[in-house]
Amino acid sequence: MVAVPLVHIAGLVRVFGAHRVLDGVDLDVAAGEAVALLGANGAGKTTLLKIVATLLRPTRGTAQVAGHDCVRDAESARAVLGVVTHGNHIYEDLTARENLAFWARLRGQPADADMLTGALADVDLDRHATARVRTFSAGMRRRLALARLSLTTPRVLLLDEPFAGLDQRARKWLEGRLEAFKAGGGALLMATHSFGRELGLSDRLAILAGGRVALDTPRAGLDAQDVQRLYLAHAEDLS
User: Fold this and answer.
1) Distance CA 130, CA 135 (A)
2) Assigned CATH for 5-80+156-238
3) CB crowding 133-152: b at 16 or more within 10 Å, else e
């Protein structure tokens, strides 16, 4: 029996006015697999992630996570999703702890004090638990956004430039976290411009161009130069 992919995207189309950003995207991500989503500015990487995250409706086509349709069964889809966007989406006038507690309540989770403390400790922010986020550096804000990963046990993670703005220690923590997530049978879909850690974590590369997946290939055996050559050959310069 063929395993059903945790992420299944078929014929996905998204139109904004006269602009067709996605034009029939097909992509699957299996359990225990990480796919790096590459493409030029405007290629539709973030739009694709937003549709899978149930934040944006497709014009046509389907997206499913763990068998749940991202439009018709959005609530069930959200229950198995973890999402880290390029923007941190945190509240500057709340403390670090209050931000995590608020986010947990939005997810319908209890805001357990020990859990919140542990999540902050994971990203080395436990000493700043009661500090207002407006006093945080950009790197600290990014780490606070990533601390949400310690509060959930999703089956699918959607990440937009996950290593951007992180120092070396935070990057190492996130890398270990994502490796463990994969090893536990989770599925990762990461949009990135980087040919660094994201590619090292990835099992496959998918390059978006012209609204479609122009290349979907295993990463094994490819070094950074190989990836750049493939990118230049398949990605459109839409900037």
Assistant:
1) 11
2) 3.40.50.300
3) beebeeebbbbbbbbbbbbb
